[in-house]
């Protein structure tokens, strides 16, 4: 089997004119240089170099071999260097698989911002709730909500996804802010999913009390963007992931309700096939996501409480 290291050493010896000079240029002991050339000759079954005390010279076979192989080795080394050098900057196509619940809303902005920062990266996002085989379908990474199943994939939890009860300011202005779970259960509800059956949620009070709330839907859709649009148009309350609602929360088109109650958070993870030789585009995207999510959390934490949001809304509609 051809050993490219032996071939590269042979070429360097010819270029430098001796084993000693080649060893110095490569910072490799002369004895190792000599042995590698001898091993190459042994594998070929021919003598490539004539040795003397001070220098080496090519045999006819060695000259033919050198002339035919030198440019090929140079091309291989150039390609190797180019690929290594390109790891200094993200490049190429980044293929991402995302659940529908994650891919909608703010993540579209994240992807657009990342591409502006790294213009040599082209991004393909597949929004799907089916089980995706990252390796077979050649995805660079995927997003996963909830506890991860047993898998050979590498996973990194980048955030916890919180569900939030939301409504539009117009809806609350018309129907009033619910002050109890009983009042909440009587309100119109926009359900994200399928089927007109009621949806039951476990909710946790700031005091630690745990209660179950049953919401009867007035609108049901399995299209998340459509559900979000129905909520901001005043069709009813909704239970949505904070990441999805964040754009509307920050612009005031949606407000959180029942602030004293919350849902159990679920981990949001990025998964990828292997930790070894992870490409720079994937590493950069993961680091970028973590930073953006932390910044988003800070912005959401700084939002005023319900009463202040409604007061701001009233001022806006009065003008």
Biggest sheet, strands in spatial order?
4-3-5-15-6
Return the structural class: alpha/beta
Mean of all residue-level pLDDT scores: 83
Stated plainly, the CATH topology of the largest domain is called D-Maltodextrin-Binding Protein, domain 2
Amount of beta strand: 15-25%
Number of DSSP helices? 12
Rg, Å, rounded: 32 Å
Query: What gross morphology would you assign?
Result: rod-shaped
String of helices and strands: HHHEEHEHHEEEEHHEEEEHEHEEEHH
**Poorly predicted parts:** none
Number of domains: 3
Number of strands: 15
Largest sheet: 5 strands, mixed
CATH architecture of the largest domain, please?
A: 3-Layer(aba) Sandwich
Q: What gap, in angstroms, lies between the N and C termini?
A: 82 Å
| Helicity, as a percent range | 40-55%
The CATH C-level name of the largest domain is Alpha Beta
Descriptive report:
This protein has 319 residues and is an alpha/beta fold. The protein has three domains: 4-86, Winged helix-like DNA-binding domain superfamily/Winged helix DNA-binding domain (Arc Repressor Mutant, subunit A, Orthogonal Bundle); 92-160 and 267-298, Periplasmic binding protein-like II (D-Maltodextrin-Binding Protein, domain 2); 163-264, D-Maltodextrin-Binding Protein, domain 2. It is built from twelve helices and 15 strands. It has helices spanning 4-16, 19-26, 30-44, 60-86, 100-103, 106-117, 169-175, 181-185, 224-232, 242-251, 280-301, 306-318; strands at residues 49-51, 56-58, 92-98, 121-127, 141-145, 154-161, 163-167, 189-192, 199-205, 210-215, 217-221, 237-241, 255-256, 261-262, 266-272. A five-stranded mixed beta sheet has the order 4-3-5-15-6. The longest helix has 27 residues, at 60-86.
